[in-house]
Specification:
The complex is a heterodimer of chains A (336) and B (163).
Chain A (H helix, E strand, L loop, with lengths): L2 H37 L15 H11 L10 H18 L8 E4 L2 E4 L8 H22 L3 H32 L4 H6 L6 H4 L1 H14 L11 H4 L9 H26 L7 H4 L3 H25 L5 H30 L1
Antiparallel strand pairs in A: 1-2
Chain B lengths: L1 H22 L23 E3 L18 H5 L5 E7 L11 E9 L8 H5 L5 E3 L14 E2 L1 H4 L12 H4 L1
Antiparallel strand pairs in B: 1-4, 2-3, 3-5
Chain lengths: 336, 163
């Protein structure tokens, strides 16, 4: 074991990723407000800086200077750490996502990923499950009816969407024969998996929308029935933490979708073979595209009713994902 | 079942197409202090008390303190107290002039009936509309503030006078 390759380089990469994700999360809020505004034929934030580009900064300053209020009736410890759990779960998701090929930096071979785990996909699913803890604990510790209902919805929703999501990813695993995200990306040089797995991609897209608590599946916070759902009792920086976590999750979910189904940094290989940075740019472009799609969907589709979503997940998505898995397996068996 | 799913998917995509079309249109927002909507020719803004601008009464106040506007005002937001023109000081062409003339803009609904009621065409509704202020008292406009030439209360551009 060498200190440089095993400790320092991963640490530096992790630090960079965390910083980038924080900024990306903050700017995702800006992007959402701006894009949403354009869908509604408005300008969106344009007072702070050019095109409102300093808006996230202004929001952060505002949130920091807000009084930190902890209501009397809450479970103090959980109430305080719950936003942190949400946030941490989002950040560590990125640990297994490769954002570029291996490059040589100062004579040192550096892979543009933090960890190339051979069970990367499992890790993703597990961490996605962890994220729900932040929501559930926040809702539970708030000791408020709306928060609790939001938290309950988050759990029920998680069980419902993770199943079809896992099944959709299983088909991907069947095709690749590997759970490593790096291998999954590198196998998509000629065409992205979304083309091979259109149904799986669709199921995954719906599930990832639910996973990020994105409209039309933002049931844990449905402001028209649950005030703000699990966030009702939060204010100031703790609220901001939930908020940034949600938007960083949007970016990370975009990255996951891009990695697994859109060929990550690899596809199209003609371009990404030119230079490692082109690969990184491709990856970023795909994330931006996915974020745009998320906002586009939010701007277009009304929220699904809670029970309808459950029905949809269990009675439609799960069978569909199973069918997709079976068909994939049969086709692979026949071809091989 | 499959047909249902496909039509549903088709309609979802069509809905997304509709919103995407709006994404590429120009925002309809008017960036207010910088840009302005054009006022209609018959727009009714803040009141003004006019003076004679020509003829033998040049410079005199048109208002003769008859208080017909106050009588006609649906919200009773006008208060007029007439005074005699005496001691050689002629403020208006007649015997009397408006010694006190107050309009409570908090109650006024800008219907323009005062304009109609006025026999001498003294009170008119002009085009100033940015009337916010810091206290209720400030919004009771007195004679001196209503009399022409009245300075604009707030940001008002000249081009709006043409309408």
């Amino acid at each position: 074991m060498s200190w440089l390759t095993d400790v320092w380089i991963p640490l530096i990469k992790a630090a960079v990723i965390v910083l980038v994700l924080l900024v990306a999360g903050a700017y995702a809020t800006w992007a959402e407000r701006k894009i949403c505004a354009r869908f509604q034929v408005r300008y969106g934030p344009n007072r702070a800086g050019r095109f409102g580009l300093l808006q996230p900064l202004a929001d952060a300053v505002k949130a920091i200077f807000k009084e930190e209020i902890v209501p009397n009736h809450v479970d103090r410890v959980l109430y305080v750490i719950a936003p942190g759990i949400s946030f941490a779960a989002v950040l560590i998701t990125f640990a297994v996502i490769p954002f570029g090929p291996e490059i040589s930096l100062f004579g040192q071979k550096v892979g543009l990923w933090i960890g190339d785990v051979n069970v990367g996909l499992l890790y993703l699913l597990a961490v996605a499950g962890l994220g729900a803890y932040g929501v559930v604990l926040g809702g539970w510790s708030s000791n408020n009816k709306y928060s609790l209902l939001g938290a309950l919805r988050a759990t029920a929703q998680m069980i419902s969407y993770e199943l079809p999501m896992g099944l959709a990813l299983l088909a991907v695993v069947l095709i690749n024969g590997s759970l490593s995200l790096r291998q999954i990306v590198e196998s998509q040089g000629s065409w992205p998996l979304a083309m091979l797995q259109p149904v799986g991609f669709l199921v995954f897209l719906i599930a990832i929308l639910a996973e990020g608590n994105r409209s039309p599946f933002d049931l844990p916070e449905t402001e028209n029935e649950l005030v703000s759902g699990f966030m009702t009792e939060y204010g100031g920086m703790k609220f901001a933490l939930y908020y940034v976590a949600e938007y960083a999750a949007m970016v990370v979910n975009g990255a996951i979708t891009a990695t697994i189904f859109l060929g990550g940094w690899k596809w199209p290989a003609v371009l990404s073979d030119l230079h490692p940075l082109v690969g990184v740019a491709l990856f970023v472009a795909k994330i931006v595209l996915m974020v745009f799609v998320f906002v586009w969907i939010r701007a277009s589709l009304p929220r699904v009713r809670y029970d309808k979503f459950m029905q949809f997940c269990w009675k439609f998505m799960v069978p569909l994902a199973l069918l997709n898995l079976a068909v994939t397996a049969v086709v692979l068996a026949v071809v091989a | 079942m499959i047909r249902e799913v496909l039509t549903g998917l088709y309609h979802l995509l069509r809905a997304m197409g509709v919103t995407l079309r709006y994404f590429f249109t120009r925002p309809v927002t008017v960036q207010y202090p910088k840009e302005r909507v054009k006022l209609y020719p018959r727009f009714r803004g803040r009141h003004e008390l006019l003076r004679y601008e020509e003829g033998p009464n040049l410079g005199l106040e048109r208002c003769i303190g008859c208080a017909l506007c106050a009588a006609y005002c649906p919200t009773q937001c006008i208060y007029v107290q007439a005074g005699e023109n005496k001691d050689g000081v002629q403020r208006s062409p007649g015997e009397r002039y408006a010694e006190v003339y107050e309009i409570n803009l908090l109650r006024c609904m800008f219907c323009g009936y005062c304009e109609e009621a006025c026999p001498t065409g003294a009170i008119v509704l002009r085009r100033e509309f940015a009337l916010a202020d810091y206290s209720r008292e400030c919004l009771i406009y007195t004679r001196d503030r209503l009399l022409q030439p009245a300075e604009p209360h707030a940001i008002i551009l000249d081009d709006q006078e043409q309408g």
